[in-house]
Structures are given as C-alpha cells and as structure tokens.
C-alpha cells in the first residue's frame, strides 16, 4: 500500500475490481436511455465520426490521384480518348466511386453506433456516481456504488467505495 498524493486514504497500486453481485429479477442494471450525459456522449460520437470522415477523405484523394496519374499515363502513351484503356479506366473509376459511397455510408453508421456504445460505457459510470453522491449527501444511502461489469472507469468505483468505507467507519 502507498499513500497517493491526491488521496486522503491508502490505495492499493493494483486494485482488483469487486464483482457486481447478481441483481434480482426485479431490478435491472441495464440502462435503457442511451444519451445519459448528452454533451459528453455527443462530443465523443462526433469525434469518432470526424476521424472516420478524415480517413475517408484521405483515401478518396489517394484513389483519385491514382486515377489521374493513370489518365495522364494514357495521354503520354499517345492513346486516343476513346481507346479501351480510357473506357476501362472510366468504368473502374465509376465502380470505385459507388463502392466508396456505400462504404462511407456504412462507415458513418458504424462510427455513430460504436461511438454511442463506447460513450455510454464512459458516461454511464459518471452518471451513476454523480447520482450516488447526491443520494449520499442527502442521507438516502451510505452503500457502495456499483457500475455495470462492462463499464469503463471501474477503478473510480473501487476508489469511491474505499472512500465510502472510510466514511462509514467515521460514522461509527
């Protein structure tokens, strides 16, 4: 154990996350509302979409440069504009554009839903902890906080529960 310079209580360097006890059939630990902290979640989703769009634009530009170079190569070789080379190049360019459009559409949807799912795993624990702190301050509970087992920030749960343990010991 060591004393963390930001904490008032000893903290294990490697905390093993307490497993969440099985919930009764009456209570579900699954949140139905997907946008719990809209500002945080939408910024994370927006960031994932922007990254995807930037990667798509770079890919699109690269493919277009290749087609331009092939077009210039055909001109340098003295091929006629109606030659089979230019017809095939035009056909490939058209097919590539269609595939690119479909890929971008599917990629944007995928980015949105993955961003939503990941942001929920971050925003959920923050929301839960905030709600729990309010309940503790209002005297409604002095129990440990429990996040879902697949949520991120489980270390925050464990450290808060250590704090709650200290709080309960002070109340005795």
Estimated radius of gyration? 27 Å
Q: How would you write the strand order of the largest sheet?
A: 1-2
Which descriptor suits the 3D outline?
rod-shaped
List SSEs in N-to-C order.
Answer: EEHHH
**Structural class, please?**
mainly alpha
Give the mean pLDDT. Answer: 85
**What is the makeup of the main sheet?**
2 strands, antiparallel
Contiguous uncertain segments of 5+ residues: 1-15, 19-27
The number of helical runs is 3
Distance from N terminus to C terminus (CA atoms, Å) equals 24 Å
Q: How many domains make up the 3D coordinates?
A: 1
- Number of E strands: 2
Helix content: 55-70%
Q: Note the beta-strand portion.
A: under 5%
Fold and architecture overview:
It contains 3 helices and 2 strands. It has 172 residues and is mostly helical. It has one domain. The chain has a two-stranded antiparallel sheet with strand order 1-2. It starts with a strand and ends with a helix.
């Amino acid at each position: 154990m060591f004393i963390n310079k930001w904490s008032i209580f000893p903290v294990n360097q490697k905390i093993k996350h307490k497993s969440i006890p099985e919930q009764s059939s009456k209570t579900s630990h699954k949140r139905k509302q997907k946008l719990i902290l809209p500002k945080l979640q939408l910024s994370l989703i927006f960031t994932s979409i922007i990254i995807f769009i930037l990667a798509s634009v770079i890919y699109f530009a690269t493919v277009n440069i290749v087609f331009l170079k092939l077009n210039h190569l055909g001109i340098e070789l003295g091929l006629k504009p109606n030659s089979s080379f230019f017809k095939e190049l035009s056909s490939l360019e058209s097919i590539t554009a269609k595939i690119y459009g479909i890929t971008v559409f599917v990629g944007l949807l995928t980015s949105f839903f993955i961003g939503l799912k990941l942001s929920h795993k971050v925003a959920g624990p923050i929301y839960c902890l905030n709600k729990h702190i309010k309940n503790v301050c209002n005297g409604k509970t002095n129990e440990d906080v429990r996040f879902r087992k697949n949520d991120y920030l489980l270390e925050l749960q464990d450290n808060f529960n250590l704090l709650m343990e200290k709080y309960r010991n002070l109340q005795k």
